[in-house]
Amino acid sequence: MFSTLAVFLLLLFSAVTKQSSSSVIVRGGDEVVLACENMMGPIKCLRIHWLFSKLSQGTALTLVKFGHPNQTQAAREKADRLRVSSNCSLIIQKVSAADVGTYYCQQVQEQMELIHTVALSLVNSDHQLTSDDEEVTLNCSVIPNDPCKHNVKWLYQGQNIDKHNTNLETKYSLCAAEVTFKSLHYVYEPGRYNSLQCAVEDCYIKNE
């Protein structure tokens, strides 16, 4: 009888954990909003903790504790760029490669614990001119939070660039893409530069 009661009480008072996940891709230098999804009941950010981890780190870093940025020495470097919105989302300003990783929104309420993970990846882009200024190369790459799961490609006026297009030559590699064209090409003229766009797709989402 006693053992049966003990098991019943253990089940009664053990917190139930529910998990969900999402992913976000942001350009370097931009601001990003990481949503704490599947909130339980009325929003109370004082019950919210945000943690951050990278594959290269052994333990997770607590960024937000009880709804407020953590002021420990380890978290202070990020704290100046962090704030928590009214709906408990984590807002990061001037995102850099150091911010790439996995973020955990932990919410505990009564006998329920909810953990939402957000995988944050970064997109970088730049351009290079040859020494004689005759050719231009645009580079676009993704710094992923884990092994690359993204397709990166260049679009011209919203469409895929034909691999036989001799005016716009493309090269693709893991999590990166480049397009090269003559500096005299009309896409390099003022007002036409935006006709080339870097597109990033999550392979896992695409195949679902």
From TrEMBL:
CDD domains: IgV (cd00099). Keywords: Signal. Residues 14-121, 132-208 form the Ig-like domain. Gene3D superfamilies: Immunoglobulins (2.60.40.10). Residues 1-22 form the signal peptide. It holds the Pfam family V-set. InterPro entries: Ig-like_dom (IPR007110), Ig-like_dom_sf (IPR036179), Ig-like_fold (IPR013783), Ig_sub (IPR003599), Ig_V-set (IPR013106). This is Ig-like domain-containing protein. It comes from Xiphophorus maculatus (Southern platyfish).
